[in-house]
Structure formats: structure tokens, C-alpha cells
Amino acid sequence: MSQRTETGLQGGKHTAKRGPFEGRLVCPTESELRSISFNRETAARVKAWGESSDGAVDRVIDAIRSHFQGTYVDFEGKERRACEANVTYQFGEDPGRWMAEYFKRADGPYTRRLNKGLVRRVMFIWIALEVADRRLGSAGI
User: Fold this and answer.
1) Which of 12, 39, 93, 113 is the most buried (most CB within 10 A)?
2) What is the pLDDT of residue 9?
3) What whole-number distance in Å separates Cα of residue 80 and Cα of residue 74?
């Protein structure tokens, strides 16, 4: 995934720093964001945080609100700045319940691609994971 950023890399390796990430992220394509393997890996990475499903949603939102001051190119090719309101809106009314279901993708044999309406949620999870990688290396947010 490191090939997708335009800053934060040095000699092909992440350069971790404690301050907010101020670079530019290029998100995976819609097809990648919907793929079974991408979601299995992403769900496993979030589940590895050891948070409850509500805690994981809060951590995603906090990562973007507090630690990401850059821009991202979304899966539609549009350059944007993330804002907490947009991220919170994408997770809907009961985000913890959805995240608990999403965690099942880490372990279960899901055979269906992600629903198209959920792509932005997964994109924001990916952004939070990328920000964590760039800020603190493998230690996370």
C-alpha cells in the first residue's frame, strides 16, 4: 500500500513521525475497496487494534480528525480534504454494529464483495490505517 502516497516515504520505507500526517494519499480504486481480499486484510488490521467495535469507529474518526491534515484522492479520482462531519456521516446511525459485522470479514469466509454503498466507509478506514502507518510505523495510532 505504500506506493499510494506521494509523501511520507524515504527509500521505499515509511518515515514515521509523531505529528499529523500532512501528505497526499491516493486511495485504492472502487474495485479494490470492494474486493473480498482487501476487506479481509483491512478488517484484520482494524480488529488487531483490540478495540470494541464502537472503539474502532472512534479511533478511525479520531485518526482522520486529529492526525490527518493532508488531502486524499478518492476512488472517483477527486482530490479532497477529510473532515470529521463527512467521516461521521459515512458511518451512519449505528456505526459500532456495522463495525462488529465488518470484523467478521477478518476471520470468516466471506464470498461476496462489499456492497457499493459501503465503499466510502472502507475508504475512510483505509485512510486511518495509512495515517497510522505514516505517523507511527507499525505501532498504529
Assistant:
1) 39
2) 32
3) 7
Which cell is 22 given? Answer: 500532512
How far is the C-alpha of 75 from the C-alpha of 105, rounded, in Å? Answer: 21
Q: Are 4 and 66 in contact (CB under 8 A)?
A: no
Q: With contact defined as beta carbons under 8 Å apart, do 126 and 102 qualify?
A: no
Q: Which three cell numbers stand for residue 12?
A: 521505499
Q: How many whole angstroms separate alpha carbon 88 and alpha carbon 68? A: 15
Q: Model confidence over 23-72: pLDDT tens digits?
A: 889 999 999 999 999 999 999 999 999 999 999 999 999 999 888 888 99
Q: What is the pTM of this model?
A: 0.81
Q: What is the DSSP letter of 8?
A: S
**Which grid coordinates are listed for 93?**
446511525
Strands of the sheet with 71-73, listed across from one edge: 24-26, 71-73, 79-80
Convert 74-106 to b/e letters by CB count within 10 Å (16 or more is b).
bbeeeeeebeeeebbebbeeebeebbeebbebb
Residue 15 contacts by C-beta under 8 Å, 6 or more apart in sequence?
Answer: 8, 9, 134
